[in-house]
Design brief:
elongated; mainly alpha
């Protein structure tokens, strides 16, 4: 699975989980307990999943910061070019 597909998958899971928790008919504490029990029944290691989600969040955060830095650098260069073009005219 490519990193872009993985990012889409993780984002979809996060959105789905958030919607499920917001729309759940039970209190948060009960919902978290039920999720842990169900995951344990399915043989899912919650600690591993939580770690992978944390790693994914860190990667997304790094990518977002890099994108913001690139955008800032681009707009700075664009503004400098515009200022240079105006001085020449």
């Amino acid at each position: 699975m490519s990193s872009r597909s993985w990012l889409g998958f993780v984002t979809g899971v996060a959105i789905g989980a958030t919607a499920a928790l917001l729309l759940a008919p039970h209190k948060g504490k009960d919902t978290r307990r039920r999720i842990k029990v169900k995951a344990k029944d399915l043989g899912v290691n919650i600690d591993k999943v939580e770690h992978k989600v944390d790693v994914g969040i860190d990667k997304v955060s790094e990518l977002a910061h890099a994108a913001m830095d690139s955008l800032g650098n681009y707009t700075t260069r664009k503004a400098q070019k515009k200022d240079g073009d105006e001085k020449e005219a």
